[in-house]
Amino acid sequence: MTQIQLPKNFLFGAATSAAQIEGGAFLDGRGASVWDTFAGQVGTIADGTTPSVSCDFYHNYKEDLALAKNLGLQSFRFSFSWSRIFPEGTGKANEKGLDFYKRVIDEIHKNNIIPNATIYHWDLPQALEEKGGWINRDIVQWYGEYASLLFREFGNSVPFWATVNEPIATYVGYAQGIFAPGHVSERMGRQANHHVLLSHGEGVQRFRQENIKDGKIGIVVDIWKHHPYRPDNPADCAMAELENEKTYRSYLNPLFHGRYTDALLRYMEKNECMPEIQDGDLEKIARPMDFFGLNCYNRVVDCADENLLEEERKKKHTGGNFQDNGFEFYPKAVYDAVKMLKKNYDLSIPIYVTENGTPGFHEKPDEKGCICDQNRIHYIKGFLYWIGKALEERYDIRGYYVWSLLDNWEWNSGFSSRYGLTYVDFDTQKRIIKESGKWYAKVIEERVIDWEINVHE
Ligand code: FCB
Fold it and tell me: How far is CA 428 from each of CA 55, 71, 124, 425, rounded to the nearest angstrom?
């Protein structure tokens, strides 16, 4: 048994996003987002649900923030709904939308919690999608105007700002079609991603222009490193390498090196999906930030022989161990990512782990009303252990947020995938703190992790 002590000044929190918790989709002047539209189409969401009510945080925010305080959370990560603020995406702001966020931020402070805001967490106003959405280069200005308004309204009451959550979601929505708005074109996906990165740069620039005292700005990127299933097999290695290029490196290289790599450029050339890039774009994308938000859930194991991988999957054996929910348990992923950020990008800004968590597919209260999610406790403990290890080696990680405070609407999985420290009964809106929530509260207080390291982890 190893014991890890996490520092006193290490920030513990939980993360959420507007589209997933707020509901109130058509109240007080809010415009539709692409997710409202997408969820309304048949066959897009696993359980056929929509985000229109979800946790109804729009009405329950006081109770939910009291709950966050009860858990001892030091920080609460949330996002703004662009179409609640600009129902048409641009133009005239909706006062009632701004007022909602003012009340939420006040309430966060009243509970002595530090707000951590994300400007864009996937819910593009539908009105903008109708003008081409992330494919239209004008979006950089649309995004910029929206970000500037938020900085002016809330810059003095929110210390942490993320421009964008997981730029890859835009690729999934424009190239793979399984996220809103549901386009299937590699070319569109790459163009959309370029514009997301450019908007991030625009956001950083506007943040600096507002001269916000004590505020910090960064971006949130998810790193799911691809590993070859057979490290000595050239086809597996090439596959993992290309996937790493196409995923997280396609964001980190422009952000930190101010360029797309030759490997990615070659791939885009060959596959006729090269985005339009103008002079000065990459300098803009690479503007210095104050912190890096790392979302880390797992790794991916690639095998060029699909049959072999399938067989191995059935044996649940791809180089690690597996949880009850079917996902591989690889908590070292966070340590690998932090090390890679230093080694390959010479990262010198602090890292906050802005999301980490694991889903339950069949969670419900037992006879005693308890949600005994030992699986989640084990998972979080493993990740905290590896964060502790990285801290011992002097990597600069300043905080950690569990995804999520509440069970919520999990995009194309709908309500079938529960990630909360708190169980939500979506029929009655009743909340029950899960065993993991009680355990996390204790960790925040004591800052000690006991961990039995397994060879596979
Ligand atoms: C992340 C997203 C977040 C949630 C979790 C489970 O990729 O940022 O909104 O869906 O996954």
Answer: 10, 22, 29, 6
